[in-house]
Predict the structure.
Amino acid sequence: MSLTRPTLLLSLAMLLLLAGCATRPVNPPITQADPTTGYRYTTREQHFANKNSDNLVILAFSGGGTRAAAFSYGVLEALRRMEVVGPKGIKARLLDEVDIITGVSGGSFTALAFGLYGDKLFDVYETAFLKRNVQGELIGRVLNPGNWGALWSPGWGRSETAAQLYDEILFHGATYADLNRGSGPFVVATATDIATGTRIGFNQGVFDVMCSNLDAVPLSRAAAASSAVPFALSPVTINNYGGTCHFALPPFLSVYSDPATTPRPAARVVTQLHDLQSYEQGNKPYIHLVDGGLSDNLGLRGVLEALENVEALDFLGRPTPFDKVRRIVVFIVNSLSEPATNWDESERPPGDVTLLVKATGVPIDHYSYDAVESLRDMIANWQKMRTLRNSAAFRENKDPEIAALLRTPNIDLYAIEVSFTKVKDPAERAYLNDLPTSFVLPAEAVDRLRAAAGNVILESPDFQRLLKEAGARIVTESSAGPASASSAH
């Protein structure tokens, strides 16, 4: 029996009506904030029992679509291959020494997936995500008439459709409760509150301010929020119940509650706390999240805040979460690309869309550069203060006022930049720089990004200095780089 035209139209209308009932997942509230539970750094310390407590290793994964996901994955692969022997003769994989991973946009997929799967990631990630046309599949779903009703629903959007796809192909229903049960490093995916520009890191400490339970949040929604590029994707909306769960700042942050006694330098910490505490006022029931790159494209801002906090609390003689740490190593995995243009060869200026993309990207790129330089400035300052404290003139005088001025944490800081600018081969560097920011790349591009990341680490003077000063050497390395580059004596 054939269907008449009115019947077909009625069927289509019913299909769209049913699809229009789709609603986004709602993050549930909590009635009491409890700093001893949930997915946060201080509750993850039990998982670090077998690691060297003297060292804190942080990986910061930038944004940049599949380009960033593949480049950061190459870093994980390289650290997995490297076995290091320390001064006490103990052998360990560098990957097992990683404590914290921050991820933004494309980098958040690699960070979250590694936190969830651990070593199993190396069996599935390449085919499940990196060498998959994720962008094409997402466009196909958006253009599918069966999804139009949901997409037109006020409780849904393109990013919810994206989160659904990410869940099916990579996360398979996993939530932060699953991530918390694992034994991997502490992972923070970052998004941006489009109303205020506030950086929102997905961890229970931030969700405490919103009086919400992060455990129930799917990892796919965190990845979708972190990579929700404005215009291309819709914001991801979460509920804010701030002011209903008796939230109080943890002890290591309570010193910032009184502006009159706030230590310096800690400007980033104070600003972030001020922004987050605005959610406690009860007049912001919804938070609309977009790409984390708008507030922190390197995943480095939170790292700088943590280090400033350590510096300020050390100055006041207060305890910090890193009191036992004597060495902090930050791998800055920056997949920023700078494709060449020929705009200055034509009288006609670039079009509106091109200008919009460039106008958004330029300040983000410059902010990323400033973040790296701020970390290097901090490293130089801590080293300089230590040199002065150890000088003969200071040891002889021991003036308390001078000692206070020279006080900095007794921690060695290392910044190892893994970026396209560090690729030595000009042709390879140009190839990587021309790769687009999208969620689809040729398989060859994915492989070359992975290989480049490993080679940059091995050739990094800062990495070699770290090994030398730590009294360590690499005894196993099977990457494409020269074997002789993997040893430091």
Notes: The chain has 20 helices and eleven strands. Confidence is low (pLDDT under 50) at residues 14-19, 358-363, 479-489.
